[in-house]
Amino acid sequence: MSAGFPGLPSLNALRMFEVVARHLNFRLAAEELGLTQAAVAQQIRGLEASLEIRLFERLPRGLGLTDAGRAYSASIRSALAMIDEATRLLRPESSHLTVSVTPTFASKWLIPRLGGFAERNPQIDLRLLATDRLSHFHTDGVDIAVRYGQPPFGGGLNAELLMEQRVVAVASPTLLAEKGTPETFDALQGFVALHDAHHYWPLFVAALFPGHPSPSARNLRFNQTSLAIEAAIGGQGIALASHAFVKDDIAASRLVQVFSQDLRLDKAFYLVWPRKAQQSPLLQVVKQWLKEQAADS
């Protein structure tokens, strides 16, 4: 005896029935299915004829489900969901992982490297959340973050050093060719100091020219390091930034390091992620890749 499904309506008709039952409107159902209203209505009439039962009541404004249609709709929706799940398991879609970083870290360090990551890991859909706001892992759907500071970063979080912080002074080679490299404190006063939100200038000047106050005559202030770096590339003055953020610009001769001295700080860039009993294999891949990239910085 055959174990087939002789009374099973066409799968296409059942899919249309589920869409119409959800919208209770032929026009909206037709839009979702990419068909004409007439084609959808014809399929539903054909389904009702083959089942020999009315599934919908034709109302003055739209449609209503009959009792039989309502019960059938719930069962068909469950059955289609099971088919969808079974198909998805056969053909797993690319898995995604969200990384939270600051806009400067994104634009000056991470984005130039992402092409290489995509080539090596085509199965991972890496999503970037670039914000100055401190992201929350659960509510923002963040899997791993790069945070600047000192651990611990909070309860239930793992932290691993990604990069030490080494702050350097950079300027446009055109600006230095025009004004000369400032070898003395007085010469430095002739340049505009480009500030970001970290306020490194007082510390840097104290290390460079001990006993002198911070230059105060000419300043430009930005809320993001990347903006201060762009201003330096544009010849607006001297910026202080992490060497990792300006390395590519120095290599491309868009910037030059003004002084050989750098500023070493206790704070650094850390990888931070929630402490869970079982870590996703994707997280391990992304962590390892970020650490490899940092080792080359």
From TrEMBL:
Pfam family, one: LysR_substrate
Gene Ontology molecular function: DNA-binding transcription factor activity; sequence-specific DNA binding
Domain HTH lysR-type as annotated: residue spans: 9-66
Keywords: DNA-binding, Transcription, Transcription regulation
InterPro entries found in the cross-reference section: LysR-type_TF_proteobact-type, LysR_HTH_N, LysR_subst-bd, WH-like_DNA-bd_sf, WH_DNA-bd_sf
Listed GO biological process terms: DNA-templated transcription
Coiled-coil blocks: none
Family, per entry: Belongs to the LysR transcriptional regulatory family.
Protein known as: Glycine cleavage system transcriptional activator
